[in-house]
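Q: C-alpha cells for this one, please.
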Amino acid sequence: MRFPSSIFVSVSLFTAETTAALYLSTTYSSAGDQIWQCLTLLFTLVPSVLVQLTLTFIHRDLSRDRPLILLLHILQLGPIVRCLEAFCIYGSVGQVEEPYVSITRKKQMPREGQSEEVERQVGQAEGKLFTHRAAFSRTSVIQAFLGSAPQLTLQLYICVLQQEVSIGRGTLMVISLLSIVYGALRCNILAIKIKYDDYEVDIRPMAYVCIFLWRSFEIATRVVVLVLFSSVLQLWVLPVVFLNFLVFFFYPWILFWQSHSPFPENIEKTLTRVGTTIVLCLLTFLYAGINMFCWSAVQVKLNDPDLINKSQNWYRMAVYYMLRFVENASLLLLWYIYKTDFYEFIFAPLLVLQLLLAYAIAIFFMLVFYQFCHPCRRLFSSSMTQGLWDCSSFLCVLCTSASPHNRPMGRAVLETSVHQEPSNDQVPDTSSDSADDMPNDTTYDVLNDTIFDIPNVENSIGGGVNGDVTHSVSCNV
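A: Here is the predicted structure, written as C-alpha cells:
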C-alpha cells in the first residue's frame, strides 16, 4: 500500500496558506487597510468552507452518527482530522487480518498490441484510504482555484500598488502559487485516472516534472498579465474577468441544453432537484474558476452519467490556447499603451516579451508531456502534434476561403458568365455557373472525436463527489 503522501501535501498547503493569510490580515488591520484585510479573509474563508462541505459530502457524514467530526468541520479543522484518520488507517494495515477483501482487475499498458489483465486483492483499509485520497484530490483543486488563485492575484496587485513586498505577503504569495500548481497537477492526474482507470497507470517522475513546469509558467504568466492590466485599467478588468468566467460557467449548460438530455438525477439519492441543481452549479463554478487561470484537464459534461467528458479533444485544447495567447497579448498591449509614469523603473517592452515567451514555454512543456511523458500515450488514436497540425490546417482553410483576395475574382467571373450572351453558332459556356453552384461537401467538425470503448472506470469526479467509485464509461482520445 502506498504511503498517503498526497494527503499530507494537500493538508500542509491548506494549513500553511490559511495561517499565512490570517497573519497577513492582522498586519493589514494594524495598518488600517480594512479593504485588503476583508479581501484577504474572504479568499481564505470561502474556499475553506467549500473544502469542509466537500469532505463532509464525500464521506457521507450527514447520514452517519458522527457529531464530533461534524463539529470539527464547522471549526474548519476537517482536513487535519481526515489526514490523521488516513494515517491511522495506513498504520493499522497488516496488524489485523481483514475479514473481507475485493478483487479488482486492471489491464496493463498494451505492448505489441497485446494487453494483459492483472487481478489483485483490495482490503477494506486500502479501500478507505482510496476514498481519502479521492476526497483530498478534489479539495486540492477547490482550494487552488477558488482560494489560492484569487489570493495570489490580490496580493501581487497590492505589491504593485505599494511597490514593496513584505515578508508576510511574499510568504503568502509563494505558498499560494505552490497550492495552485499542485491543484492543477492533481487535476491532470485526476483526468488520467478518469479516462484510463481500467488500466494500471504508472506515472513517472518526468511526467510530474513536465506538468509542474507547464502549469507553473502558465499560471504565473496569467496572474501577472491580469495584475498589470488591472493596475492601469481598473474599471475594465472587471468586464474581462466576468466575461471569461461567465463563458466557461455557461458553456457546459449550453451543451447540456443542446443535447436535450434529461436532468441528472444520479448524483446523490438523498438530494432533491434543488440540491442537485446547487451541486451542478458549484461544479460548473469550479470549472469556470479553473479555466480562468489555466486549461482544465477535466472537462465538465452534464449530460454524461459521471458529469465528465471522457474524450481527449485536441481541437478544443488548441483553440483554448490560441485564444488565451491572443487575449494575454492584447491585455499586455493595452497595459503598454496606457501605462503611467508609475512603471518608469520597468523596461516595458522586455517585460511584455518575457511574459509572452513564458506562456510559449508553458505550451512547449504541455506538448512535451502529451507527446513523450503521458503514461497512456500508447492508447491515443492520434498524437497531439497531429491534432494541432490538423487544427491549424483547418484554420488556414477558413482564413483562405474568407480572404477578400479570392472573393472579387469569383464574383467577377460569375457576373461575366451571367451577362455574356452566346452567339448562335456557339454553345454557351456554363462551366463557371456549374462550378459556383456545386455544393461544397467539405465540412470540418472541430469538436468531433475518435471513440473507442474502455470497459470500466472506477474513479471519476462524479463518483468522487458522491462517494461511488464504479462506473462504465467510454473514453475518447
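A few notes: Residues 407-477 have pLDDT under 50 and may be disordered. The radius of gyration is 27 Å.
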